[in-house]
Every structure is written in structure tokens, then in C-alpha cells.
UniProtKB/TrEMBL annotation, chains A, B, C:
InterPro entries on file: Hexapep, THDPS_M, THDPS_M_sf, Trimer_LpxA-like_sf, Type2_DapD
Leading EC class: transferase
Protein source organism: Campylobacter geochelonis
Organism domain of life: Bacteria
Name used for this protein in its record: 2,3,4,5-tetrahydropyridine-2,6-carboxyla te N-succinyltransferase
Keywords: Acyltransferase, Amino-acid biosynthesis, Cytoplasm, Diaminopimelate biosynthesis, Lysine biosynthesis, Transferase
Transmembrane segments: none
Gene name of the record: dapD
Family annotation (Pfam families): Hexapep_2 (PF14602), THDPS_M (PF14789), THDPS_N (PF14790)
Length: 397, 397, 397
């Protein structure tokens, strides 16, 4: 093979690979360091990605595809996903092709090349570490720890929209492990087997959590305007948009859930819940999720919402809505709307028919400018027109 | 003394010890590595047990009893508990007796012997470490850090039922300490005395908590189906049955409290509270405890209960009960039951007399199939018959 | 200069410094170890103080003032604050003056001198570390990371009362950083730049939080009777009085907020909220803060208050008040007070006029002995006279 000397050579080389039978471009691909089980060295417990490719960088993919092939690994592009072990030979092959680019590499450019160069360096020093390449060809139910992690990264990094990926069966694929201080997974069985020695020698590891999912902050570098006051509160797979603050009280953001704009979050954003820009989720406020709580409707909360302290929201809300502190608006909650308020609400919700006085929560899904209250003298839950615009405290951002 | 060569020799030897005056078998016993105060080397701050014996393994106990005696330590079996320091001489004596079994030792067998062998190894290398044996002869108010810890382990490991042990005065016995990253206790006074050096040299330790109790996950290896997303949420002395998940939002499980079957826990399980199999404790739900909240009745929640998000439960509940999101059912809450619902409830609660329309919470203690709601138009709190069976999401387990 | 041999010499020397033009005594001053940015070595990310001086120890200040001057650093006493870098020359100058006292130094005496001696020792070994002296001359909006930290320490240590310091713009001054296991700040940008190497080598740091504020327990040694079960729950700048317990469920104490006496805290103490002695803040109870929630009134909760589980308090409360579990008392909440209860309440609130039946929450601010309830049959929120005295469980303290 002729040495690749420039971009043009590379393009020709890549075109040749792309024309091969069985070549197919993945939706997403990335290279990971994987943590293996102490009990079964074939078993992956966790994958760490630094550079994630989503519908991009197919030249690098093609070269990797070729390098694997050269080393005897045929990437099966017919399945929905493929995980290939990366050893020195594969990485060397890749670097051989990209050699002409090495001098161009700096901070933010050629991230995939940087990744391969770094792995090469690590493998030179210590062949013990485990690396792999993960390819997702179709968005079907994930089959490997590596592909679940890749999907969780895609969500957390905002490469794809929340709720847009197939995560069916992810709970079954991920092993339940103890996460130690270094955010490394340890199997509970291994801890049991080694308990006597670890305890008696004073070396029993501090376990921060036992879960199938790792923590968001163990994998994702948030943008500068994001704050997470307690790493335990956000699972990998959550997405926190710029300007999002997660306070440490009763808050929580599950995987496949999060914010799409700046938000102050002191409550629970359950799995599949999406919170819009400028919203304030008050202390202890609960937004019910699909995993337990609602009848299966994923809840979105619109822009500039205010969910009061200890309120509960069980229906999707449009923009500019308020749920007062301490009240629960569920699918079956009966809500009174006076004709005066109905008239005002009509303006903000042209399509909706306010043709009665009592509505069920489910009927009011996704409407704008609703202010839910409980009359403190009659106990009546009402919805009225919200004329205030909720504003997050700028000082806090 | 003749060398013990086999099980038969051992039995004879043990029988001889058992026939001694002053010999008595403890309810529970175990060997611990103890962490001592930096300020007073006599003072135990924390005990780590790997193998716990509850009404079992009395041959090992007898040998230990004898070994201590041989080394001049007379175990006082008349008190409710006894803590003996274990040095190399004691451990060597024990191992002398069990020498014939050493080759048989593997993974799960002869755990006490493994424990002694491990201590022997550690003491050979570094005599600095501290080990003790703790014996509990009677379940009275604990007098030592070592016996409090042993009782907390018995509860957490499910060797005894929750609420079945005497823990009176445990708060007074346990010192309040700072727990560092390695889950080791540091006295606050020591931190104050060394603050200048620690701060100026950049070596001030990260403190994860300041408490009398350690964290559950620093001492207990949970079963594979248990998840605890934030180690701060569960104190040692809590019991988490198989299939229990503790989410990181507003949840919490105190010592001497927990679950007896699979459960999704996003709320607070206060001290002395027991939650039954198949129950769902919603986000921010509070179950009041005996330490503060109720008038002293320990609350049990039955099987297949659903405590809605931000609900409060101040009375014990039978099976198949629901408390709707956001409402509080306390001892004094007046609850309306219509005659139609009373009839249905009668089926599920044969013994109870539904002879009126308004009940106080306290009167409805432990009944089955109650569904507590607040009418959102009248503010009236009602109880009706719950016909739904609460089912935990199987995907999550 | 003549060597200072005794207290008398020192006093004379100090008097001479004090008489200088431009000399001015700061309200507060202290010496810090500072953590600098990896990206810009001039930028301070965090300051660690061990000894804090508030309107005290001006002899030590004067000597430091002189030492800085001798080393060419003129302390600008006209601005509201000044931060001076401390190098070996400065520290040596200070120690030269205090040499006669060195033999007197022990545990609790001459803390400032101990601090300088410790820095001297550290700088001798490794000149790399960064130290500074921070002087606050006027309580204006803080301009530096060092002065914000000094103010947060003053609040947390109880040297000044909560809400008594000017913290305007503190959010803007503090950088948002990732806090690692050693409680050291890391810039998010640095993490991004080094992500590939850190992830691929398995050395990506465990991040405990991303926030502008550090955790209380990373800087403050609490008194022996204080418990904080989860370090993430309390920001530096909070004050926890003796006998305060912060449980790990839904609780939280923000900066410039806290307790003034013993308290059981299982709920949220938002920024600027002060809770009085003997109070019990129930599980998930929310006290609204000035940063988001109230119309700007800082809320105080008086002595012996009981805020029930999942209650919400949006108005200041006097002594002996109870807010029942699950209810929200906000500024606009309409509250019914019967004439019978009004008569009893009048005794406890001589100044107040109970001249009607329905009050808004805001009208009842700061009154004593109010018991807020919701009638569970009519939904009516009422206030009545609280005759019970709330008592914290002594066993827990």
C-alpha cells in the first residue's frame, strides 16, 4: 500500500473502502476505554468515551473499518450494532494512514486522531488496558454495555434529542455494580468474595453508589454555565442545557430526561421528562415519569414554567404555566375554570375549546398560561390565566 | 495439650470448654477491625465486621473463648456484652486448634476461620492494627461502640428482624465523627487541632459526612438486585430487601428501618418504619418515624402500597393501600368513607367496623385496600376501596 | 531595626506602624492558601482559611502590614478590600518580629503566629504553593474570590450574624468549577481540553459537584454537637448552630442561611432563611428564599417551630408556630381564624389586631403561636392557637 501523504490521497483511499461490499456507515460510532469485570475478563462493566461521532467523521470511520479488517476483524454491518476490540495492531494501522495529519493536531482539531494517538501511547506503556470501538448502525434495542453507554452519551451531550433513541431493555443490558471513589465499577459478588480481606486490612473501598447507571459527572464535562451541586443527582443519559442548575435538596434528573434551556431545578425530573427554557422547578416539586407515575405519557414542561415547592405535575404543560406550591395536578384531578378565566385562556390557546367549567387534568394537557391553584378556603383546585412572566434570578446565572 | 487432628478431636475439645463454669453462649458474636481515636488510643470510633454470627458457629466461639482465657482474658459472661482485644497471641491460639481445617478453607466455607487467618496475616506484617471480638449475651441497651455496630450489622444483614433489637441509648454510645473519603472516622476535635497544618498544606481531608452512624454501603455488600444511587441516603442499621431501589432525590432510609421485599423508594423511610414487598414510595413521600413525627407508633406499610409523590403517611397501612400524591394522612386527619365504599372495604377488612362516615386516621390503622384521596373540588379527604393492584415496573428490576 | 524581645517592645513597634499615614484597620483579615487555575496562574479559584480575624488581633495585622510594606507591597487601605500575595520574604519578616513568642505557642494560643510558622515551613520545602493575605476594610460588594470566601467563613463560623454582610455580586465573582475528590477546584475548560487523555488513561477525576460555592464541610470544622449526614447538603456560608442536625433526605442549607440554635433539619433552608433554636424542619419542608420564591422578604422561623413533612412556608414565623404536614402557607394564602382562636392568639401577640376572620399570609408575618392547618373535610386553611410546646427528641442529641 502506498503511503497516504495528504488529504487527496486520504479521500481516494477512503472512497475505495466505502465502495467495498458490506461497508455501511453507522449512525454513531466512538472509541472507548472499557472497564472489565474482575470475575470474568470478557465482561464489560462500563465504557468511557471521550470523542463521540454522530452522523459525522466518516473518513475516520472508514479508516478504522479498514484497519480492523486488516487485523482480521470483520465489522458486521448487518446487525444493529457492533463492538470491536482495539489492540495495538489496529491502532497502529489507523495511525499509519493518518500519519500525514499528526503535525496538524492541536487542542480542538482532529479529535478522533488525538484519541487514537492517546490510546497508542497508553498501549505502548501498558498493554493491560482495554479499548474498543462501538458502532451503531440502526437505532434498535441496545445489546451491549458499550452501545447503551454510547446512546447515553449521545443524549447527555445533546447530539440527539431526549426521547429520540431506542433504549428498550437497557436496564437488562447494564450490570448492577458498586461504583467506587474513582468512579470505577466493582461487582458486588467480588466485594462479597473479598470482604474479609478488605475489611480486616482496612481497605474496604468507599462505595458512592450501587446502580446500573453511572453518574453524569463521571462522564460528561458540562458547559461552563451548568451547575450540579451534588453528582449523585444526575444519571448519565440526562441532558442539562446551558444555564441549568441542579440544587442538592430533593432534586434529581434521570437518564433520558432533562432541560432544553436554562432552568433552576430543585425538584425531580423523572425519566422521559423534558423541561423548557426559563423554567423553575421548585424545591421538592415532582414531575412524574413514564417508569412509574403516569399512565405512560411522557411529560414535557414548557418554557417559563414555575412548579412551586412540593407541587406534583402529572400532565404535560405548555408555556408560561404555574403550579402553586404544595398542590398536585394529576391526570384525574378535577380542575375548575371560571368563564372569565376561560376567556383569557382562550387567547393563549386558540385551538382549545373551553366549553365547560370542570376539566380533568388530562384534558388540559399542553395548554399555555395555566395557573393551577387551590383555593385555601374551599379546597377547590382551579386553573386561571397566568399573566405574570416567570423570570429566573439572573444573579444566579 | 494434644494437637487437634480432626472434627472428632475438635468436638471433644469444644465440649470440654462448654462444660466450664462461667461458659455461656452469646446471642451474637463477631470479630472486628476497629478504628481508634487519634486523641485517645483506647477509644473505639468504629468497628468493621466481615463475618457475623447470630445464634450459630458456637464451636468457633468456644475456641475463641478458650484462647482468650489462655491469654489471660476472662470473658465476663454475666454482663449483657463483652468486648475483648484480639492480639497475635489470641489469634495464634485459635489457629493452633483449627490448623487441621486450614486446607479445607475456600471461598464460602469456614468464614470465621478465614477471618482469623486474615487477621493473623495482617498482624504479622504490622502489629499496629486493632482487632477485637464482640460478644452479645443478652439483648439489653448496648454499652459499647462495638456492640452497637454488631447490632446494626444484624439488622442490615437481615439476621434479625427490624425493630427486634434493643438499641436504647445507641445515640449516646456512638461518638459523633467526621467520615473521610476512605470511610474512616476522624474526631472533630482532632480536625480543629490540626486545621492550620491541614489547610495550609492543602491536605485538609474531604469529609463526606459528620454523623454518629456510618453509611450502609461502607459496611454492607448488598445483594445483586439492590440499588442505592447515593450512599448518603442509607444509614448502617437499615435493611434493604432484594429488589429494593433507593433513588437519589428526596429519599432516605434510617437505621432500624427498611424494606421486607422489593420496593421502589423515592421517599423517606424514617427510623422504625418497615415497608412491605411490592411497594412504591413516591418521590418525596414521607413516612413518619418514631424519633420525630408520630406519637410513638412505629409505622409499617403493607404490601403493594403506593405512596404518591410528596404524600405524607403518619399511620400504619395494611396491604394494597394508596395515598394520593400531595396529601397527608396523619393520626388526627378526618377521613370520609361513603357507605358504598365502606361495604367494599368491609370485604378486605372483616374485623373492622365501618359504623360511621368520618374516621380519624388513627382509627384506620393497618386496614387493607384503602385509597386515600382529596376531592379536588371540595377539599374533602376520603378513603375508598382500592381495586387496582400496584405493580412495580419490572423493567427497572 | 532593633530586635523585638518582649510584649512591650512589640507594643511600641505596633504603635509606630499604626501611626503611619495610610494605616487602617480592616474589619476582617486572614491568611489563605489559594488554589490557582491550571489555565491562568494568576486566577484564584478557591481560598482556604484556617484562622479568621474579625475585629481582633490588630497587632498581628499591623506587623503583617509592615512586613508587606518592607517587601515593597503597599496595602491600599482606601478600597473596600485588598489581597496581597504572601511569599517567603513577607512571612520571614513577620516571623522576625514574633520570634520572641515562638516558644509560647501551643494548641490554642497565637493562632495567627502558628499560621505564619506553618506557611514558612511549607514554603521552605516547596515554593510552589500559593498564599495570600486578605483584608476587608469596608463591607461593600466583594470584588475578589478571596474576599467572598472570607465573608462566607465569617458567616459559617458565626463571627457575624447571617444576612449582616454585603454579598452583592458574589455569584459573579466566584468561578463555576468542578470540585474533585480532594475538594480542589478544576476548571471545566481544562477538563474539556484534557478529556481524551484523562478518559483513555482511566484517570478522569471523580467530580463531586460543579458549583461556584464549595461545600461547608470542606472548609469548616463543625462543633461536636453538629451533624451533617451528607456534605453536599450545606454550602460554605451557611451557619449551623450547636445541636443542629442536617439529615440526608430532601434537606439543604444554602449560603447566608442556617440555624441559630439546636434544630432537626430534614427540609430546605433557602438562601437568607434563619431558623431559631429548638425548631424541627420536617422531611421535605420548604422554607422559601429570597433568590427564588418570595417577593424578597427574607424569612425567619422563630424558636420551637415545627414545619411538618412536605409543608411550605413562604412567610416569616414567630415563636412556637406549627405548619401542618403537606400544607403551604404563602404570602397570598387566605387563612381563617375563628374568634375563639383569635382571643387566645391575642395573648401571644399583644400588638396585633385580630379584627377580621380571613387574613392573607403576609398579614400574619412574625406572629407567635400560630398553628396552621387544613381542615380535611372542608379544605379550609385555618390558623389556631398552638398550645403544645415543640420539643426536639433529646435522644438524637
Amino acid at each position: 500500500m502506498k503511503k497516504i501523504k495528504n488529504k487527496e490521497d486520504l479521500n481516494k483511499f477512503v472512497d475505495k473502502i466505502k465502495s467495498q461490499d458490506g461497508y455501511k456507515e453507522p449512525i454513531a460510532w466512538a472509541v472507548a476505554r472499557v472497564e472489565k469485570s474482575f470475575l470474568d475478563e470478557e465482561k464489560t462493566l462500563c465504557a468511557n468515551y471521550a470523542v463521540i461521532n454522530y452522523k459525522e467523521n466518516y473518513a475516520s470511520f472508514a479508516v478504522l473499518f479498514w484497519a480492523l479488517q486488516e487485523c482480521g476483524i470483520k465489522v458486521d454491518t448487518k446487525g444493529s450494532e457492533f463492538v470491536a476490540k482495539l489492540d495495538r495492531d489496529v491502532v497502529d494501522k489507523v495511525l499509519e494512514i493518518f500519519d500525514f495529519l499528526v503535525d496538524e493536531v492541536d487542542g480542538n482539531s482532529h479529535k478522533n486522531l488525538q484519541n487514537f494517538m492517546t490510546i497508542d501511547e497508553i498501549l505502548s506503556e501498558d498493554g493491560e488496558d482495554n479499548f474498543c470501538a462501538t458502532f451503531i448502525f440502526e437505532d434498535k434495542a441496545p445489546k451491549s454495555v458499550e452501545s447503551v453507554y454510547l446512546k447515553l452519551y449521545l443524549l447527555s451531550l445533546g447530539k440527539v434529542a431526549l426521547r429520540s433513541l431506542n433504549l428498550d431493555g437497557a436496564f437488562g443490558v447494564l450490570p448492577n455494580v458498586a461504583w467506587d471513589l474513582q468512579s470505577k465499577p466493582i461487582e458486588l459478588e467480588w466485594l462479597k468474595e473479598n470482604e474479609i480481606w478488605l475489611k480486616m486490612s482496612g481497605a474496604y473501598p468507599t462505595i458512592l453508589s450501587v446502580d446500573k447507571f453511572p453518574r453524569f459527572l463521571s462522564h460528561i464535562v458540562p458547559n461552563d454555565s451548568v451547575r450540579v451541586l451534588d453528582s449523585s443527582k444526575v444519571r448519565l443519559g440526562a441532558h442539562l442545557a446551558d444555564g441549568t442548575t441542579i440544587m442538592p435538596g430533593a432534586s434529581y434528573v434521570n437518564f433520558n430526561a432533562g432541560t432544553t434551556g436554562k432552568a433552576m431545578v430543585e425538584g425531580r425530573i423523572s425519566s422521559s421528562v423534558i423541561v423548557g427554557d426559563g423554567s423553575d422547578i421548585g424545591g421538592g416539586a415532582s414531575i412524574l415519569g413514564v417508569l412509574s407515575g403516569t399512565s405512560g405519557n411522557a411529560i414535557s414542561v414548557g418554557k417559563r414554567a414555575l412548579l412551586g415547592a412540593n407541587s406534583v405535575t402529572g400532565i404535560p404543560l405548555g408555556d408560561d404555566c404555574i403550579v402553586d406550591a404544595g398542590i398536585a395536578i394529576l391526570e384525574g384531578t378535577k380542575i375548575y375554570i371560571s368563564s372569565v378565566e376561560a376567556k383569557k385562556l382562550q387567547e393563549a390557546n386558540k385551538e382549545f375549546k373551553f366549553d365547560k367549567e370542570i376539566f380533568k387534568g388530562l384534558e388540559l394537557c399542553n395548554l399555555n398560561s395555566l395557573h393551577f391553584r387551590q383555593d385555601s378556603q374551599s379546597g377547590k383546585i382551579t386553573a386561571s390565566y397566568n399573566k405574570k412572566t416567570v423570570k429566573l434570578n439572573e444573579n444566579l446565572h
